[in-house]
Description:
The structure is a homotetramer. By secondary structure, chain A is an alpha+beta fold. The first copy, chain A, has helices at residues 35-50, 54-58, 138-148, and strands at 12-18, 63-64, 67-74, 83-91, 97-107, 113-127, 132-133.
Amino acid sequence: xxxxxxxxxxxxxxxxxxxxxxxxxxxxxxxxxxxxxxxxxxxxxxxxxxxxxxxxxxxxxxxxxxxxxxxxxxxxxxxxxxxxxxxxxxxxxxxxxxxxxxxxxxxxxxxxxxxxxxxxxxxxxxxxxxxxxxxxxxxxxxxxxxxxx
Amino acid sequence: xxxxxxxxxxxxxxxxxxxxxxxxxxxxxxxxxxxxxxxxxxxxxxxxxxxxxxxxxxxxxxxxxxxxxxxxxxxxxxxxxxxxxxxxxxxxxxxxxxxxxxxxxxxxxxxxxxxxxxxxxxxxxxxxxxxxxxxxxxxxxxxxxxxxx
Amino acid sequence: xxxxxxxxxxxxxxxxxxxxxxxxxxxxxxxxxxxxxxxxxxxxxxxxxxxxxxxxxxxxxxxxxxxxxxxxxxxxxxxxxxxxxxxxxxxxxxxxxxxxxxxxxxxxxxxxxxxxxxxxxxxxxxxxxxxxxxxxxxxxxxxxxxxxx
Amino acid sequence: xxxxxxxxxxxxxxxxxxxxxxxxxxxxxxxxxxxxxxxxxxxxxxxxxxxxxxxxxxxxxxxxxxxxxxxxxxxxxxxxxxxxxxxxxxxxxxxxxxxxxxxxxxxxxxxxxxxxxxxxxxxxxxxxxxxxxxxxxxxxxxxxxxxxx
Lengths: 149, 149, 149, 149
């Protein structure tokens, strides 16, 4: 319930990746800490798709959006060379936060998918001096107005 | 409640680190994904202290202990060069899991500490073919017997 | 001169990448150590293109190919979000080594390119017990026969 | 010859490290790209020892010192959990550069050492707008005067 409100719109994006040699640990599977980067890359894909990118849309408005909460549930392992996909979904919220849910999966040719992990992140707004901003920035209100209403 | 039972013993360890140049992102603070490595390093410190290390104690018994759940709450930021400390605490559980809680903090000379982040992880047991092991391995039962009773 | 012989064939591949948020250091540019991963990814692209991949072609024949020499010359900086391309070129050699040269560049729409860095690597063969193999493995001789003659 | 002049003084520092679980690749040895970070950490140890640290001494004077050349020769492999040491030696030069040589080694109790890798880096000076500075900055001249003469 932490950061969810009802909304008719579902905003989502996808980021495909292939497990790199140096991301694999001595178990022969992608090290669990390396998932965090792919969550971020899917957020970037989302930002580019919907005009909410770190650099062009958020930083230029005078804000940082640090991650304040991260949760990952690992269900399967990812071997070197495997191609997987992060699906990221925007979770609308009234408070001055940006919330996402993620699903990392391997997709088969026939449309089936095997879920590897799920995750959730929460970001807040700070000004460029890194002070927390408690009210929704105007540009973010307008962004929500544009995409969610 | 996920993985806690009562126990009179508190097993814990500490791992000190200094934020590295290449761990800092373009905000000038430690990138949130880099915390995961320090959680692992504190688990290693714990393993060395209590005889539960990945290589010598767990792998040699025929097990891997992959992380299946990770949660981090980020409360403050960490700048380049800052010295911080992870305190890791073992959370006893009846099921075949290894659960830890973490606190990352900056400690002042006078004993005061500033909490930077808190975290929780859950690990399960697999055999070396990476099949989930649902029962507590004998060596882990004995380890718990030794340290917790 | 270290590892070059004459050959009429030029084997090369390319790998495009976009500088990630967490690859950028507090200077706001890609941390110099992160280039190493992109060299490797271009080698992988090469391996897939020419049938010399780590897993399917080399490891299955019973060999590892550890990097024994790495040289990088950094000429320009790479900012967050910039799209760049690694061009990797195979450098034929008589000895039991795999040598590559690299050029990392930003390509403009008009075909112009700005060179960011150049690099060279040398890899040797070991067996799966990690003992150095001084003679060219048969599969590698055949590979060179196929592609270079 | 690139960046060496005669000097009676040998300035050097050491940085000890233990190979981390997530630094090891699927060969079970430290991934070759991860050595770069330990070179940097030894430079930091050097900077702290001799008053030439990135943040307190160089950045505050208005300079960055990006690495423009990196060379590593890998001679042995490093397994997970192994303790090794980087020895870094300052190589005096007349031009506006900072040059270091490195030796990564495993030291035995009896004083013997096994050399794992050697390396060399060259850094230049830029101003905070990242423009190359061709003349030795005054603070660096004074630093050399203090330590080398």
